[in-house]
Amino acid sequence: MELWKSCIFLFLNFCIQSEGIVRTSYGNWNIPKIGDRNIPSFLIDESKNQFLLDGLPFRYISGSIHYFRIPRDRWDERLGKVRALGFNAIQYYIPWNMHELEEGNHDFSGLLDFAEFSMMAFHKYGLWTILRVGPYICGELENGGLPWWLLNKNVTKQRSSDRVFTREVENWFEILLPRVKPLLRKNGGPVLMLQIENEYGSYDACDQQYLRFLRDLTRSLVGDDVLLFTTDGSAESLLKCGTVEGVFPTVDFGPTDDAKEIENNFKLQRKFAPNGPLVNSEYYPGWLVLWGQKKQNLPSPQTIINGSQTMYSLGASFNYYMIHGGTNFGFWNGAETEAPCITSYDYDAPISESGDVTTKYLEIRKWIKGLTDWPTPPLDVPGNSPKGRFGKIKMRLVHSVEKLKTLTSLGDPGDCVETDKPISFETLKHPLGLVAYQAKINSCGNLTIPSFGDFVHVYLNGKYIDTLTRRYYNLTRNSVIIEGCLENEENRLFMLVENQGRKTFETINDRKGILSDVFMNGQAIQFWTQCGIKLPLQEDFYFRKAMRNNYRKNVKSNQKQGVFIGILSVDAPTDTWLDTTGWGKGIAIVNGRNFGRYWPTKGPQMTLYIPAEFLKIGENSVMMVELEGAEEACTSTSSCIADFIDHPVFDFQ
Ligand SMILES: *[C@@H]1O[C@H](CO)[C@@H](O)[C@H](O)[C@H]1NC(C)=O
Ligand SMILES: *[C@@H]1O[C@H](CO)[C@@H](O)[C@H](O)[C@H]1NC(C)=O
Ligand SMILES: *[C@@H]1O[C@H](CO)[C@@H](O)[C@H](O)[C@H]1NC(C)=O
Ligand SMILES: *[C@@H]1O[C@H](CO)[C@@H](O)[C@H](O)[C@H]1NC(C)=O
């Protein structure tokens, strides 16, 4: 806060000295005069309701594309395809949780090097960047982009002016925004404007003090001559809670053939931004998909073009969300109340998950090609990358699920903690994926867990019993009758609990693991061992060991849950898909890299995308951690099939 005040003070001093300052409702502009094209700047010309880029009228057709959902080596390919459409900008979020998985330990390398992403887009393809800094982003990402460890803080309300929350945001923005600053247009870079928060009007807090805090914090770190904006659904109530004085309001809405509807959406924006350009920050050519979803209701390419043409004719700037979706690799998918989001973030976007041009792509490109006054016409249609069908490989069951907790990595005992009562993922400081809970019980009966998230796979003495479910559509199940306890002996109760993604917007206090006592016949079970399962496993070590050993040794016959291993031989690496048809539910790991969850018994996603760069010539290790049982994929006990095919399969009805 002090920093912010001193900035104002310095700035006012400067204003007095300089005649050339330009003030608009959306910022103070330290440029000699509007229209000077020699000084990089991006601002709103309120007299003409338009953007000015380096002093000249500007509008954009952009596409959302998330660097963190694309293999680093494929950024170039995907950005080139965005430019070839005729777009002149990209838009993306910054996911706080991915950059700070461990509190205080920031990662901006490799796949997370957003500055490099924007510089490549700019220098190679002339694409501007519209940047959405959060801190909350939604994006169908785990916890809406907020770090899991915020749940360990005494935050009464996330995304509000709660001082505990805002202090964390200050810490993050003080790390993030200095990295954004050199990329800003005023400093010669490609970043035109910054979105704070995301569809805040849709959140129940409606906390204006929080939005003012975010605005002032951002300005204090990048200067008050940077255009800030908000995005909200086009409804008056949403805009009321999502906008704040001095920050340019934009709206989002999907395709429609009804021009009147589009005009009305922009009229609402105009009500909150009387002097500014028309902007649709999210125009949806596709949509997200949840596990278990049977149908997809998408706009036709004709409607997408029709709505685009209407917006274009109105002089609007607009962004396709998504132009290219990519993949929720690892455990980064979020969840909605009904069900978790699938691993693929293909989104039915114009550029497919594997970077291919689609019919939608070609239609949009054709439309832009026909715009005679558009300054960046499409380029030649780029080719698609080769795809490989490597065929079927044998997967052998090498370890039971119970063994997972000892398999974390080389000589590493894992993150095991012993307590009287079970503890959550957050208390264990194990953010994502799986935690194993183990206790000794003397008798069987009714096992009840009043509170947990999300799925509890229950095993007795190594045998799979059933799965408890917090909520999956209309299914809720928190108890199971367990039978088969050994008399006068201690029995091993083992529970593998799956965090299948924290919710993206309904709640952001979505704790995972066992969140209450666990009862057997009404008695709380005492003394627990909890182990965070570190995936991917140390595959080289573990893989060789497993292949050397007699793989049947550790496995009970007729067991179909556990760790399966196989070898994929590849002559020439290309993109491929692991077809999980016939498997139950689990996680697929190739060459030590977690490609995400599979759940073909629910669908619709049947295949996992494996990009070429993660395969090597020769032998590739394939590991499947199967939680529920690979039924149809197995020809015999402990010999099952994984198939590598050359296209994705989504099983919609
Ligand atoms: C948590 O926050 C509440 C409300 O701000 C406060 O009353 C309480 O003392 C805090 N507890 C801890 C442990 O900091
Ligand atoms: C969009 O579709 C409607 C209904 O078919 C049609 O009347 C209108 O002319 C179309 N608009 C554009 C811009 O193509
Ligand atoms: C749950 O949903 C399924 C599928 O839509 C339906 O068949 C079933 O009747 C529903 N059950 C309840 C209890 O609502
Ligand atoms: C187990 O006990 C709970 C609590 O008494 C009860 O609600 C539940 O129906 C029982 N479960 C089964 C499967 O019988």
Keywords:
653 residues; alpha+beta; TIM Barrel; Jelly Rolls; 3 domains; eight-stranded parallel beta barrel; 12 helices; 35 strands; disordered N terminus; binds 2-acetamido-2-deoxy-beta-D-glucopyranose
Number of domains: 3
Total helices: the number is: 12
What's the alpha carbon Rg, rounded to whole Å?
26 Å
Termini separation comes to 54 Å
In CATH's first tier, which class of the largest domain applies?
A: Alpha Beta
Which residues sit in consecutive blocks of at least 5 with pLDDT less than 50? 1-18
Average pLDDT score: 92
Q: Name the structural class.
A: alpha+beta
CATH topology of the largest domain: TIM Barrel
Describe the largest sheet.
9 strands, antiparallel
Helix content: 10-25%
CATH homologous group name of the largest domain: Glycosidases
Q: Any guess at the CATH architecture of the largest domain?
A: Alpha-Beta Barrel
Judging from the principal axes of the Cα atoms, what is the shape? globular
- Name the bound molecules: 2-acetamido-2-deoxy-beta-D-glucopyranose
Number of strands: 35
Q: What percentage of amino acids are in beta strands? A: 25-35%
Describe the protein in words.
With 653 residues, the chain is an alpha+beta fold. The chain folds into 3 domains: 47-369, TIM Barrel (Alpha-Beta Barrel), CATH 3.20.20.80; 391-398 and 536-645, Galactose-binding domain-like (Jelly Rolls, Sandwich); 415-533, Jelly Rolls (Sandwich). 21% of the residues lie in helices and 28% in strands. The protein has 12 helices and 35 strands. Strands 14, 28, 29, 30, 31, 32, 33, 34 and 35 form a 9-stranded antiparallel beta sheet that branches. An 8-stranded parallel barrel has the order 6-7-8-9-10-11-12-13, surrounded by 6 helices. α1 (2-17) packs across α6 (208-222), α2 (75-84) packs across α4 and α9 runs parallel beside α10 (359-369). It is globular. The N and C termini lie far apart (54 Å). Mean pLDDT is 92; it is low at 1-18. Bound molecules: 2-acetamido-2-deoxy-beta-D-glucopyranose (4 copies). One 2-acetamido-2-deoxy-beta-D-glucopyranose binds next to loops.
